[in-house]
UniProtKB/TrEMBL annotation:
Name under which the protein is recorded: PD-(D/E)XK nuclease family protein
InterPro entries documented for this protein: P-loop_NTPase, PDDEXK-like_dom_sf, PDDEXK_AddAB-type, Restrct_endonuc-II-like
Domain PD-(D/E)XK endonuclease-like: 658-936
Stored Pfam families: PDDEXK_1
Gene3D superfamilies: 3.90.320.10
Segment forming the signal sequence: none
Species this protein is from: Sphingobacterium thermophilum
Length: 961
């Protein structure tokens, strides 16, 4: 690797100035290179010396004035006040803060750029009503500049102007006045900003000579893109022999006018006449034939996972290394993927990625709803998020109580009066604000409570504390600005708060000279490392495809020499190329997946290098699937020890009952049976955001019971025509059941939320279909049993370890009736209601009466019929399944693929087969030699809470012996 740039600077300083360094000033674009240059100077001298003075460019130029630097928020509020004063002078209505805010940042940015580049504000914001006016007012411009402006204005020179164009023109006319008023406001308050300082120095209003006078020489190190103000000052100081310039540059891109990376330094040296103190420019990149490793990752975050392996392989003692984030949103996934090595992070940990922002953002979301929109309920997800955030510190008992309250009532929205959170650090989180004046004070108090809570922790996290303190500062600045403006809406204040706190970050302290350095490309200026790892090197990110928002159109920016998007590309190219001059190990990562946020292409800088340079590109494509960690073994539970003892104690000795549902659970997944019924690992309480069939089934069963209950126990057959009268009651009966399920008082359908209305509509149609089916197919009926889940249990003998044992089984009877068909035949039926995707069809009895039964509903209905017949002695029950979705087409009798219907002689035969199948299954369940394992051929639904337990199930023939 060639000598690092700052090492060359240190060598030149020693050669030029010897030990006389105390009256030398060294100026950088940012602070980070200062530490590195000090290290190189120490290496060069090898003994104690008087240190030169170090500055950033803003610190150096800022010494020209004693005025206070106005914060961005202070400048924003000044601008708002002054803009409304100008509107009033024009006889126009003042704008609200909400209306003005979107354009304020753009105006301030444009003002700053005009100052940095010394543009005449009156000229650039001149009225542009037609091309003739432009020609007259812009005679001082060259023909080329005038042509740029004409092209821009063609869009505005058509017949008439739209309202938006008219408003745009008025704004342009007003901006010179606003600019002068804004500068006067700063001056009156003894305040300034850096653009103002730059312009005043360049125009001689502030004394530029006073900045260099205390020093023998001022050294400007590593500068690249210069503003017009900087160019004027630098040239002046060079002519006065007060300044030296150290440019970090390579002949590869400096001497080739087609190389955009050299654009600004070519301007600095060849156009502006600034001399490079390092002398002749070496051609390092052009002579290199080293490898550049390029990694195509299958996803944005996958880049950080690939980096882990690369770091493990390439990191060595005594080598300097840096991860450069072309895409700075990769910081958090990067931190989660690093090996256990020393790390120093310059970019800072962003507030937006911390749990602190999570709780602040949640508060703002909640109060947009309950304080701005005056809603009396919040989404259950908001409460769950609050309860689970570690910063809120809710007592576990109170947390469980609230979650159970929501789950038991299936509340998609929770009334504010029902939220009881007293143990939290933030007990008033869900209390509505009394007025818009309380937004900032309440949020500030919340930040104070979080700080107090953190201070009680034994191991306080410095990052969290810093983030909270910086947030507090921003809120205080906003509060000072808001106090002067009446009637700000809660919604707007929250929007501005979000924008104001989003840039907050906390530095993660480390040693800038040791370990892996993590930074953005811009922060890497002047710095060199043995090994570099660039993440996010995608086209569209390196370089970016969007510029800074501005009201000054591109052609006009060109005419006045203001920065344009091509300038941004040139700067990105330079920041990238300069690392190729020094680093011996170069590893570049990009996301190869095409999606809405990624082009899937590597940066064009890489393609250019591959085509033009002598580097060897070693390309690697990440393959899928990537298994992290390796696949685990199948989970099987042997029926031994405590498992077997528990089963015997519960079912054989304790006579616990086995239901039809438990039986079908075992048929589909013996492992799930163990989890639910032996280990008793219950499903966690949850809220169904989608429509849930369980609730629909409960409501339908209850309403059907209410409709048929008056007829239970009546000896005589009743005409089905009476059911016509019941149809009109369905609507109100469903409403009562929904109110009961949700523990609410509901009198009318319009009081239901959207999901409840869907539930009401589907239940109505299903129940109406059931009644109409009975009316159509039967003359009369009598009810023998109805919705009984208590009285039907029997004992069944099975063989367990060579001994007969008695097991209890029980059935839930939806309905047993006798009906007279249209042709006068009397049938005794057992009826089961189903609201899901069940069916009465099956392909073969073998597939029904076997593991992973193909018709769970048929097994359950046969189970209920068997228990009822054994318990009551009533025989010849015909199983019927009322499947609302299919009963019109398929009927209610189970039927096989070959046309066999489960009735009469075929039914008698299959009842006998079922009993044998039932005993065989129960004996397998209680066979100690057969472990609990999942059947891999069973379809697993996404909502199944036990998925992780049986995700690695394999077929028996695939088992390794």
């Amino acid at each position: 690797m060639s000598t690092a740039f700052l090492a060359l600077v240190a060598q030149d300083i020693k050669k030029r100035f010897g030990l006389e360094l105390s009256d030398i000033a060294i100026v950088f674009n940012n602070k980070r290179p200062i530490t590195y240059l000090k290290k190189h100077l120490a290496n060069e001298y090898g003994h104690a010396i008087w240190s030169p003075q170090f500055f950033t460019i803003q610190e150096f130029l800022g010494r020209a004035t004693d005025d206070e630097q106005a914060s961005p928020l202070t400048q924003f509020f000044y601008l708002y006040q002054l803009h409304n004063e100008l509107l009033r002078e024009e006889g126009r209505e003042p704008e609200t803060l909400e209306e003005f805010y979107p354009i304020a940042e753009i105006i301030l940015s444009d003002f700053g750029q005009l100052d940095y580049d010394l543009v005449n504000v009156d000229h650039i914001y001149m009225e542009l009503y037609d091309i003739a006016k432009i020609d007259l007012e812009f005679q001082h411009l060259t023909p080329e500049q005038q042509e740029f402006i004409r092209k821009f204005w063609q869009a505005f020179s058509m017949q008439g102007h739209t309202g938006l164009q008219e408003r745009f023109l008025r704004l342009w006319k007003r901006l010179p006045k606003l600019y002068r008023a804004f500068k006067q406001k700063l001056n009156d308050n003894r305040q300034t900003n850096y653009p103002t300082v730059y312009r005043k120095l360049a125009e001689g209003i502030l004394d530029a000579a006073s900045l260099t006078a205390p020093f023998k020489k001022v050294l400007f190190v590593g500068f690249n893109a210069l503003s017009a103000a900087e160019v004027k000052l630098f040239k002046q100081w060079q002519e006065e022999d007060k300044a030296l310039f150290y440019f970090d540059v390579d002949a590869y891109y400096l001497e080739d006018n087609q190389q955009e990376a050299g654009l600004f330094i070519r301007q600095n040296i060849f156009h502006h006449g600034l001399h490079n103190a390092l002398g002749d420019t070496p051609n390092i990149i052009g002579s290199r034939k080293d490898d550049i490793h390029v990694y195509a990752a299958t996803g944005k975050v996958s880049q950080t996972k690939l980096l882990y392996d690369v770091l493990q392989k390439h990191e060595q003692e005594g080598k300097t290394s840096a991860v450069l984030l072309a895409d700075e949103t990769l910081l958090v996934p990067l931190l989660q993927s690093l090996p256990d090595i020393k790390v120093n992070i310059t970019t800072g940990f962003p507030l937006t990625q911390s749990p602190i922002y999570g709780i602040l953002d949640l508060w703002m979301n909640v109060h947009e709803r309950i304080s701005h929109q005056k809603k009396t309920k919040v989404a259950y997800q908001d409460i769950e998020t609050f309860l689970n955030n570690p910063l809120t510190k809710v007592n576990p008992t109170e947390k469980t109580k609230n979650l159970n309250f929501i789950a038991e009532r299936q509340l998609l929205e929770v009334a504010l009066d029902d939220i009881s959170i007293k143990t939290s650090v933030l007990p008033n989180f869900f209390r509505p604000l009394a007025s818009s004046k309380e937004v900032i004070p309440t949020l500030t108090h919340m930040v104070e409570l979080l700080l107090q809570s953190l201070s009680l922790d034994q191991h306080i996290k410095q990052i969290d504390a810093t983030l909270l303190i910086e947030t507090q500062k921003v809120l205080n600045q906003l509060h000072l600005g808001f106090e002067k403006i009446p009637d700000l809406s809660i919604l707007f204040q929250i929007g501005l708060i979000r924008k104001a706190i989003a840039p907050i970050a906390s530095a993660i302290e480390g040693d800038p000279l040791e370990g892996l350095q993590i930074m953005g490309l811009l922060e890497s200026r002047c710095l060199n490392f043995d090994n570099i790892y660039i993440l996010g090197a995608n086209e569209g990110i390196l370089p970016k495809t969007s510029g800074t928002p501005t009201f000054i159109p591109n052609n006009l920016r060109r005419a006045y020499g203001l920065p344009i998007l091509e300038n941004q590309d040139a700067l990105s190219a330079y920041l990238f190329y300069r690392h190729l001059q020094y680093s011996s190990e170069i590893h570049i990562f990009y996301n190869s997946v095409v999606d809405e946020s990624s082009s899937g292409e590597e940066s064009r800088f890489l393609k250019q290098l591959e085509f033009e340079s002598n580097f060897t590109f070693v390309k690697k494509q990440q393959q899928q699937p990537v298994l992290f960690p390796p696949k685990e073994g199948e989970l099987m539970i042997p029926k031994k020890g405590k498992v077997w003892q528990s089963m015997r104690k519960k079912y054989i000795d304790g006579k616990a009952k086995i239901s039809a549902t438990a039986l079908t659970t075992y048929l589909h997944s013996p492992l799930q049976f163990f989890l639910k019924h032996v280990a008793e690992i219950k499903e966690p309480p949850r809220i169904a955001q989608e429509f849930e069939m369980n609730l629909l089934g409960t409501i339908i069963h209850n309403v059907m019971e209410v409709i048929y209950k008056p007829f239970k126990g009546v000896e005589d057959f009743i005409s089905t025509q009476i059911l016509f009268e019941k149809i009109k009651d369905i609507d109100s009966l469903i409403l009562l059941q929904i109110a009961k399920e949700y523990a609410m008082e509901i009198k009318e359908v319009r009081e239901l939320n959207s999901l409840q209305r869907i539930l009401h509509k589907i239940a109505y149609e299903y129940i109406k279909m059931y009644l109409e089916y009975d009316i159509k197919h039967f003359q009369s009926f009598r009810i023998i049993e109805l919705e009984n889940d208590e009285d039907y249990e029997i004992s069944i003998p099975i063989q367990v370890e060579g001994k007969e044992e008695m097991l209890k089984i029980y059935g839930i009877i939806d309905r047993v009736d006798q009906v007279v068909t249209s042709d006068g035949v009397v049938k005794t039926r057992i009826v089961d209601y189903k609201t899901g995707a069940d069916s009465v069809s099956f392909t073969s009895i073998e597939k029904v009466f076997g593991p992973n039964t193909e018709n769970k509903a048929m097994v359950q209905t046969m189970f209920y019929a068997y228990v009822f017949e054994q318990k009551t002695g009533i025989q010849h029950l015909e199983p019927n399944l009322y499947v609302a979705r299919k009963m019109r087409e398929e009927g209610t009798l189970f039927s096989g693929k070959k046309g066999t219907v489960l009735t009469e002689e075929f039914l008698v035969e299959q009842k006998s087969n079922f009993v044998q199948f039932l005993k065989r299954t129960l004996e397998e369940l209680f066979n100690p030699e057969v472990p609990f394992r999942h059947n891999p051929e069973v379809h697993v639904y996404p909502s199944d809470p036990y998925t992780l337990f049986y995700r690695n199930a394999v077929k028996e023939e695939d088992d390794i012996q």
